[in-house]
Design goal:
alpha+beta
Length: 185
Amino acid sequence: MDGANAHGGRMKLLGAVLLAASLLGTAARGEQSPWPDDPSRTCFFQMLSGVDGEFCRGDLEIIYPELGDVGCAYIPKCHQYRRRISREWGSPRVRYPQAEKGADLRTGNVKGLVLTDYVRPTPPPRSGYHRYQLRLYEQPAHEAIALSPEERVSLGAWAMESFVEQFQLGSPVASTQFLTKYYED
């Protein structure tokens, strides 16, 4: 993140606080499938709408192999994409095209302190769609960001609002999410 300085060097983007784990497992209860899951060869991607669509702002991208940017979209069942995200593919490439020129985050080559390791989306069977969110914050200059020992072992089940308040991160610079469900549902 060293090359991603903003506001005259007083703030730097905190790529490590993309916080995908912040809402892992938060079910999108009551959501109906936006399309029938048939095994057709044609794969249709449904973009999020309403409140879920409004969460996505600032052009933050989540890029998986073969899928491309899944930000603000439902992951379709076709081509076994849900299974591959849950069982095969490692962490996605995360890009923020609005980062300063030359910044690692702009190219998707995120470096810096990792607060929590990537955990694949693994929604339980018959639990509907789950949201997987990423948020990008600016880190106050000269502010060390760290998780408590309890937060480190919680796999993202810690209070996001308290964390943001503790480190005075303010509102996200960008945020995005995708929804997926158990790959056999």
